Amino acid sequence: MSEIPFEPWWIIAILPEILLIVLAILILTLDLVLPVASRRNLGWVTAGGLGLILILALIFSRPTGEALIWGGMLAQDWLGFTFRMLFLFAAAMTAMFSMDLPRLGNRGEFYVLMLASTLGMMLMASSADLIMLYLAIETTSIPLYVLAGFLTQDDKSTESGFKYLLFGAMTSAIMLYGFSLLYGFAGTTNLYELATRFQQGIVSDATLMGVLLLVLVGFGFKISAVPLHFWAPDVYEGSPTPIAGFLSTASKAAGFAVLLRVFLAVFPALAPYWGAIIAALATATMTLGNLLALAQKNIKRLLAYSSIAHAGYAMIGVVAVSYLGASATVFYLIAYVVTNLAAFGVVAAVGRITGSDEIASYAGISRRSPWIGIAILVSFLSLAGMPPFGGFIVKFVVFAAAVEAGMIWLAVVGVLNSIIGLYYYLTVLKHVYLYRSEDEGKPLPITRPYAVGLVVLILGIILIGTVFAPWITLSGSAAAGLF
Amino acid sequence: MQFPILSIIVFTPIITGILILLIPAERKTEVRVTALAAATFALALSIWAYFGYDIPAGGYQFIEKYSWLPQFGISYHVGIDGMSAPLVLLTGVVMFTGVLISWGLDDRPREFFAFLFILATGVFGVFVALDLFMLFFFYEIAVFPMYLLIAIWGWKETREYAAMKLTLYLFIGSVVALVGALAMYFTSGLGTFDMLQLENAGFSTTFQRVVFPFVFFGFAVLGGIFPFHNWSPDGHVAAPTAVSMFHAGVLMKLGAFAALRVGIMLLPEGAKFHMGWIILLTLVNVVYGAYIAMVQTDFKYVIGFSSVSHMGLVAMGFATLNADGMLGAGVQMFSHGVMTALFFAVVGMVYDRAHTREIPRLGGFRKMMPLVTLAFIIGGLVSMGMPGLSGFIAEFPIFMGVWGTAPWIAIVAAISIVITASYIIRIIGRVFFGQVPEEFEGHITDVTVLDKVALVLLSAILIVVGIYPAIMTPLVESGVNNILRLLGGA
Fold first, then answer.
1. For the segment A182-191, what is each residue's pLDDT rounded down to a tens digit?
2. A203-211: Cβ within 8 A, 24+ apart
3. How far does the CA of residue A465 sit from the closest CA of chain B (Å)?
């Protein structure tokens, strides 16, 4: 990938980011103008605006080739583009799920912070320079710290925001130290320049591996890989449910976008070393995530551990260090983002009425609202990897990538883990469908934003799970730029 | 382009299932009528497919092939041969009778029929799949509705335990087989999951011998092979009647069929290498299963273990790897499916009225439900392998085949017939004849018309196949020839 002189299409290339800022300003203005009672509608504006940006971007901003733009700061390629679209989608869904939550949905700054964070993620996915990358990661994280602690009257929320901040700041510092060493060795901050310089062997492999480990700390925190997963359950449990969903989907996917680009495009030569490390991490992440999920009584904590486990599955694709592996990871994340958003959406919709996130409080839900029952069924079975839902095909592709790379053992570990996973997902379904509760007679009203969001997501899960070819093509073109 | 009969068979249930979910929950009659209409339609089409199969032409027929995921060489590829055609028919029959028998179900019938139909789509899909990926796809679809059906509508005492046990067993089996299948895909180097092409992949003997056990046992778990049969009686007993019928009648065949299609047909050298000891496991299935059935006091457990025993005969037939054994196994899959569906239907009818399944507490049901008694006796005779009924047509070739490979196994296995006779006759004597216990006096009613229709249909099939085997054996033989071709004309 090479740098080219300024051309007007550079502006079109970052059209989504520009429009995102416009949307944020619009929300801020409307927040001043609108009466308090109707500020909830800012959620519709946010979601609608994001949807519009998504469509416009798909029409105008599709990358035509691969190039470094804006002074080598951003890479214009399908990897970045795919993830950027995914973030827009996730943010739109999160906005809808937040609308009807008290002390959240009617606050303009909530949506603005979320948009700021989305902007950061989009830049993360396409940044091609260490400085840009660091700025993007911080732009993503700082609003998320605030969002996690947004419910200031709620001790758990404040605690979660603070915990997230402390962990985030520490890992970010370690990662920044790694970045500084990379710059010190190579004398450049551009990722693709770095790749060329290191190929000339200016630093020994062992030193470089050490530096990479520092960098991996920061990325591992973002994707909540073991042993940097400690924050996830506490933060998810305390933060507002839609934000927990946003953290576990978009933020995690952003981490993977960076991980893929930095490790596969910049350090392919060291793949045997970091491949082994990430393989070990993937094994630990899957196993620990799933085992700890077994013991959970709170559904948000359960989903937190399950999302740790899913990071492990997605890492299998990275470990394979192949075209198939990288596209498997991208595909996995697409399906995972859609599925997990649905799962958190349901939890938000139910928690809003019942006021509880305990799994026990899900008893009899299918009798109170058959539709919510179906939504839980579809999203949890998709997480478990059952066809005809998205989770099946992506697990299949990820395991296929492992087998192709000659790592049958890793596929077997993944397979065993998905059995554990099935157990606890079914346990939740057992509460939903089987157990009776005294509240069965009470209705479970679903407001319009939840209905719209969940229908879109459920259809998405089934679409991914039955019509595979377009998704694989998309993930394939995203992965193609890495090799 | 020809009429896509198989696709319609496969997708009718799931589409109906989704439509049923859209009907408001309180309109239960509409739910039932829709379900019955769809089941009738699917049955009619499966009868058409069965009789429309051109036996002299052989091979796979009614083929449809569409590209599904070209990057992986995955296609939607369906077709039936002499082995799968009877099983498609069987599924149609069990689905139809299952709906009839579940007519009276009152707790959330909408969800019940929806899940049952999703299950049916999975089953149909596996039987017609000619693509390995597609086979897995539908296989998994068949597994998860089972969990819900048993856990929600099952027998209160054991349903949670049994449903989870069953689901985990089957899931473990299928994912183990999946890893084997992926190994086949990448080793073949053909870049396709199409089983017709993988048949000619020319895997090395070593590869086949290593991978075969994974694939075979992965699927055979669902076929109830010893020592992985443990889930099956618990599952059968805990399940509601229609689900037990589906479960023992069709789902266990799914395992046996997939083990045949993927294990034996794609890895013939592996099959030849391992079958020597696998046949011993099946012998344990047959004899031990029958023996355990004999000592049960719970009516439904007797039938549950008898399924283990009879499915052992299917696996034993496969394990002979010769024409007779395979033919018998093919017919046995159909015959046992219909027979066991009949048994579980009867058990359900008795339990619904008596609220107990303890054999010593039952008695004299002949007086209250004569038709049920007759149906059970027919099923029982099939189970014992009485000539003139389908069980004989199935079991006789199996024993011939086993005799051809290992006579002493045939001799030992024949003991099971005696044991089977003992438990069947004991049930007939205790439950249907004898004195009516006082607690049941006066308030046991006969079964409904719909129940009778189901029982008559099932019994009629057993008799027709028994007295006119030509309706099925030439068809199965054509399927067997195809398998033998892959085994190198053994």
1. 999 988 999 9
2. A205/A270, A205/A273, A208/A267, A208/A270, A209/A270, A209/A273, A209/A274, A211/A178, A211/A181, A211/A182, A211/A185
3. 10
